[in-house]
Automatic annotation (TrEMBL):
Keyword tRNA-binding: no
Record protein name field: Heat shock protein SSC1, mitochondrial
Organism phylogeny: Eukaryota, Fungi, Dikarya, Ascomycota, Saccharomycotina
Superkingdom of this protein's organism: Eukaryota
Similarity-based family: Belongs to the heat shock protein 70 family.
Regions annotated as coiled coil: 571-598
Length: 645
């Protein structure tokens, strides 16, 4: 139990300049995409450049084939080419699974749509399984892709690359960021910084030859994720004002919609042939669906022709752009709310935005461009290449860290509020969402009951007033607090979010003990890095939506909960008094006080369980009566004692 006391020394530090350090080698920037990845570096001309792979391509498919029989690993285009022959061992779009639990509804949905096997590992995280039964984590797949990107850079730059800046969707939570950093560690690549994809894109936009200024919205729609960020660019300072998005919405979902459409029409045309369980056929149809989607960005219709998809089943159909737009409209509409929320969180109006940047392959779809133009009320800019901007921005960040690029500062934000549970199930946020990172905040709390020797620190992420509506992301106990009256220990809880968006929490006993106390000068503190659980994008979305919908109700409930907590404490005090003085009270008086405490306990229970919300006035009245009766009885005892009765 922990009770909010005074806020002391709350620190809010934005480390402005990123300390320029000289690295011996180039620091590369890697856009680790769901569908494709790219690598870039800032050259001696101080401009970022994308590095081409062995096939002369500027992006590399984020696809990995694992062959157990001959221990062969293929990454990139050769892996993508093998997909049809080896669907069970060809892993693609695994970024959608990174840092997620197997039970996550998004993971469960992916299981139905991919030809490879997704299984739970020992910790219940989503893992991949080869046809020979070997488990591999999405982080390891990410590591293999990072390694490939490093190889591309090493071969192009003719030097051994060891350090990189890697991008992640802005809406990645703590465990997804940790998992991405681990991907680098697994292959010996030192990930100096994890930065948000839209922020990287803005860096690329703002740092080109004609340096730009103003308020920029980055609309980033890629293969697996959708992000929107709003930044202020001024004098080389890139300050993210707000960010929002959906880490499970991307081009893959559009492919799946079209795939299901093709499967349904094959069924229709062939008197019920169902190809959905045929891995090879599904893989071919999926590729054809993606190809048709891309064609529809420039043509009014696309033909899908696949002879002998199975035995004598052939696919021969045409899809028009209008049909495709109509069937994917529910997906496109999912971008509207996050954009509106982001603008609101940035405390701006749509008209305040000077420039809208499009990033990610899906922004080539004309319907998406149209929706963006309508939403922002202006045509989006084509100043950045949507496929390369993220990698270029990561390279710039790499060059900032190595000291090569100067006078550019990046201030990013955290997407969700972070806080702890305080007495009575109340969420006390320490760091509100959209706070600039890195950030450190400390707050002093105290105990809620007498003699409490430990406090359980429960860390939550979310926007609701009561912890039960937020997400528990970690917990730990600070023990060995010396027994004392409630409210005396001073427990400092410190939250830290580093520049990668990774969270650590610590608690320490800062009570000023007298020098003769056995606790004097003995440090007592506990720290954790929050790695245990991640939030799925739908949970994040849901949390913010619900918090807005329930704002008034939450305020109301907070009032009830605070009254209930106060009542709880007063009842406990009265019960202690009954233990101390009960024997000396008259039986009728004792029973009366007991009846009052029981009545209040029932009221508190009603409030906590949601069974009945007693009017706080009635509760206060009952508390006053209880205290009055108890005091009267104790006074009588004192009078009797004085008279020597
Ligand atoms: P990214 O993650 O930025 O590489 O985006 C990849 C996604 O963009 C994939 O789902 C691609 O199918 C999709 N994509 C790429 N080019 C186009 C295009 N011209 N029209 C529509 N979608 C595209």
């Amino acid at each position: 139990m922990i009770k909010n006391a005074t806020i002391r020394g709350a620190r809010h530090s934005i480390q402005r300049a990123l300390v320029p350090r000289r690295y011996k080698h180039n620091v590369i920037g890697i856009d680790l995409g769901t569908t494709n990845s790219a690598v870039a570096v800032v050259g001696s001309d101080n401009e970022p450049h994308v590095l081409e792979n062995d096939e002369g391509k500027r992006t590399t498919p984020s696809v990995v084939v694992l062959e157990d029989n001959n221990h062969k690993t293929l990454v990139g285009l050769p892996a993508k080419r093998q997909a049809l022959l080896n669907p069970r061992n060809t892993f693609f779009a695994t970024k959608r699974l990174i840092g997620r639990k197997f039970e996550d509804p998004e993971v469960q949905r992916d299981i139905r749509n991919v030809p490879y096997k997704i299984v739970p590992d020992k910790q219940g995280d989503a893992a991949l399984q080869t046809s020979a039964g070997r488990n591999i984590s999405p982080s390891e797949i990410g590591g293999l892709i990072l390694e490939k990107m490093r190889e591309i850079a090493s071969s192009q730059l003719k030097e051994q690359i060891t350090e990189a800046v890697v991008t992640v969707p802005a809406y990645f939570n703590d465990s997804q960021r940790q998992a991405t950093k681990n991907s680098g560690k697994l292959v010996g690549l030192n990930v100096l910084r994890v930065i948000n994809e839209p922020t990287a894109a803005a860096l690329a936009y703002g740092c080109d030859k004609t340096r730009k200024e103003g308020v920029v919205a980055v609309f980033d729609f890629g293969g697996g994720t959708f992000d929107v960020s709003i930044l202020d660019i001024e004098d080389g300072v890139f300050e993210v004002r707000a960010t929002n998005g959906n880490t499970h919405l991307g081009g893959e979902d559009f492919d799946i919609v079209l795939l299901h459409h093709i499967l349904a029409s094959v069924k229709n045309q062939t008197n019920g042939v169902d190809l959905s369980q045929d891995h090879l056929a599904v893989q071919r149809l999926r590729e054809a669906a993606e190809q048709a989607k891309i064609e529809l960005s420039t043509a009014d219709k696309a033909e899908i022709k696949i002879p002998f998809v199975r035995d004598n089943v052939h696919v021969d159909m045409t899809i028009t752009r209008d049909e495709f737009d109509a069937m994917t409209m529910p997906l496109i509409e999912k971008v509207i709310d996050p954009v509106k929320r982001c603008v609101r969180d940035a405390e701006l109006k749509m008209k305040d935005i000077d420039e809208v940047l499009l990033v990610g392959g899906m922004t080539r779809m004309p319907k998406i461009r149209q929706v963006v133009a309508e939403l922002f009320g202006k045509e989006p800019s084509t100043a950045v290449n949507p496929d390369e901007a993220v990698a270029l921005g990561a390279a710039i960040q790499g060059a900032i860290l190595s000291g090569q690029v100067k006078n550019v500062v990046l201030l990013d934000v955290t997407p969700l509020s972070l806080g702890i549970e305080t007495y009575g199930g109340i969420f006390s946020p320490l760091i509100p969402r959209n706070s600039a990172v890195p950030i450190k905040k400390e707050q002093i709390f105290s105990t809620a009951v007498d003699g409490q020797t430990g406090v359980e620190i429960r860390v939550y992420q979310g926007e609701r007033m009561l912890v039960k509506d937020n997400k528990l992301i970690g917990h730990f106990k600070l023990a060995n607090i010396p027994q004392g009256p409630k409210g005396t220990p001073q427990i400092a809880v410190e939250f830290e979010i580093d520049a990668d968006g990774i969270i650590s929490v610590s608690a320490s006993d800062k009570t000023p003990y007298p020098s003769d106390s056995p606790h004097y000068g003995k440090p007592n503190s506990v720290s954790i890095q929050v790695t245990e659980v991640g939030l799925s994008d739908s949970e994040v979305e849901k949390m913010i939506e619900e918090s807005e919908r329930n704002k008034n109700l939450d305020e109301e409930m907070r009032r009830y909960y605070e009254h209930a907590s106060r009542a709880d404490i007063l009842v406990k005090d009265t019960e202690i008094a009954l233990i101390q003085f009960g024997e000396q009270m008259e039986e009728a008086e004792r029973n009366e006080v007991k009846a009052e405490t029981d009545k209040i306990k029932r009221m508190v229970e009603d409030i906590r369980s949601g069974a009945k919300l007693h009017d706080p006035k009635l509760l206060t009245q009952a508390l006053n009566e209880m205290q009055q009766k108890c005091m009267n009885a104790i006074k009588k005892i004192a009078e009797k004692q004085q008279k020597g009765v």
